[in-house]
Specification:
CATH class of the largest domain: Alpha Beta
Number of strands: 16
Number of domains: 3
Strand content: 15-25%
CATH topology of the largest domain: Cobalt-precorrin-4 Transmethylase, domain 1
Shape: globular
Number of helices: 16
Distance between the termini: 50 Å
Oligomer: single chain
Radius of gyration: 23 Å
CATH architecture of the largest domain: 3-Layer(aba) Sandwich
Strand order of the largest sheet: 1-7-6-4-5
């Protein structure tokens, strides 16, 4: 959709006006110094190693910039956002402080009028929600990530070719809900698989493997993650694979191979070109973060791996999964979760609530790996590093005298 007075994608030309506010809200001089110093800080008996790639990606940077520009451009208008702009509590809290109203958090679509402005988040919105908002006649500011739009283009191509879209993702994630809505155009169908285990169930059904689910059992098993009217016998005859952009890349590639083999087993190699298509739609920034996390842990000498990011951030949880391959890994959303050198509040993989872990930071010389999800500002990463030093009795200001700590001490 081309930009128009009621639809904005490219911003308002206000980058200079918001630069100071963004600098204060999201940047960290400590992180800048670490980058310039080879991503390693040694203080006393603590060595902090920062991943080469971490934190804000281009799409997140753009979304946040555009949200701030929107507030600057429309100082007197009521501004809504359909959901969290990204999965980071600090960023979303700052938007609330700037006067942005979150739909679903005390406000509804019924409150939106033609005089208002609505920001669409980096994950995008469903085709149904987009149509409803356009009908309002309000200004829409679209911060949807380009990588997400690339997935939409892919599934719409599948629709044109008469393929069912099989989406490796989380069916209740905002991005996958939006992608699924595009896969429904012209009454086409979709199926969302979360991981290898679910993909294996699909492959067994396609190949007619012994013990495969019946059609009825298949529908019951995948009920929340399939399109209305889905018939596995019909809809799995011709499929195209896409991915939620923040999934674990290695798993997506494995699932692509599994589905290919299942289709070949059922229909033969000669039929594959007509019956199965697959394109890697993991975004390059997600891949870079995952590769950097692997590189950080691969030497095998880290004692602790700390991953910083929102607890509902998909790409962050996959970084925790990678870090946990090498040493104890802890997912936290900010410095306040580090209670002491003995206690940390974190969210373990596969759980929905964070919980305490004790003895998380070993005594004596310790090497701590740090990375952050694509929605995590450098400011939060810097605060976490400061806090790790503090709980070991090290004043960050004495380690780097030119660096001003960005946060008050946690008590």
């Amino acid at each position: 959709m081309a930009s128009s007075p009621l639809y904005v994608q490219k911003g308002f030309g206000l980058k200079k006006q918001i630069a100071g506010l963004l600098q204060n809200d999201y940047h960290s001089r400590l992180v800048d110094a670490l980058r310039e110093g080879g991503h390693t800080l040694v203080a006393g008996d603590v060595e902090v190693r920062l991943a080469k790639d971490f934190g804000f990606c281009y799409g997140v940077d753009r979304a946040v910039d555009l949200a701030y520009e929107t507030r600057e451009h429309f100082p007197e208008k009521t501004i809504y956002i359909t959901n969290e702009i990204i999965h980071n509590p600090y960023v979303n809290r700052r938007l609330v402080e700037l006067g942005v109203r979150f739909l679903g958090d005390g406000y509804s679509h019924a409150d939106v009028t033609a005089d208002d402005v609505v920001i669409l988040p980096a994950f995008g919105v469903t085709t149904e929600e987009m149509a409803a908002l356009k009908a309002k006649g309000c200004v829409l500011v679209d911060t949807t990530c380009g990588s997400v739009m690339n997935v939409w283009r892919r599934v719409r191509q599948y629709v044109r070719e008469g393929l069912t879209s099989v989406i490796h993702g989380k069916f209740n994630h905002e991005e996958t809900r939006a992608t699924s809505s595009h896969a429904r155009e012209d009454d086409s169908h979709y199926l969302v698989v979360r991981d290898r285990d679910e993909a294996q169930l699909v492959c067994d059904f396609i190949a007619g493997a012994p013990g495969a689910l019946s059609s009825a059992a298949f529908l019951e098993r995948f009920q929340p993650a399939i399109s209305p009217g889905f018939d596995p016998e019909q809809q799995l005859q011709r499929i195209g694979l896409a991915n939620q952009t923040t999934m674990l890349s290695t798993e997506s590639l494995e699932i692509a191979g599994m589905l290919r083999d299942a289709m070949a087993a059922r229909y033969g190699e000669a039929e594959l070109e007509a019956r199965y298509k697959s394109f890697d739609t993991i975004c390059s920034a997600t891949q870079d973060l995952q590769d950097a996390a692997l590189a950080l842990g691969r030497p095998g000498d880290l004692d602790v791996f700390v991953v910083v990011g929102g607890y509902n951030s998909s790409n962050t949880t996959h970084l925790v999964e990678i870090g946990g391959e090498f040493c104890p890994a802890f997912h936290i959303d900010g410095a306040g979760e580090i209670r002491s050198a003995q206690e940390i509040l974190h969210q373990p993989l596969g759980k929905k609530e964070h919980e305490p872990a004790y003895g998380w930071l070993p005594d004596g010389p310790v090497k701590v790996g740090i990375t952050a999800g694509a929605s995590t500002p450098n400011r939060i990463v810097g605060e976490v590093i400061e806090r790790i030093l503090e709980v070991r009795g090290i004043d960050p200001a004495t380690v780097l005298p030119t660096i001003t700590p960005t946060r008050l001490p946690v008590v």
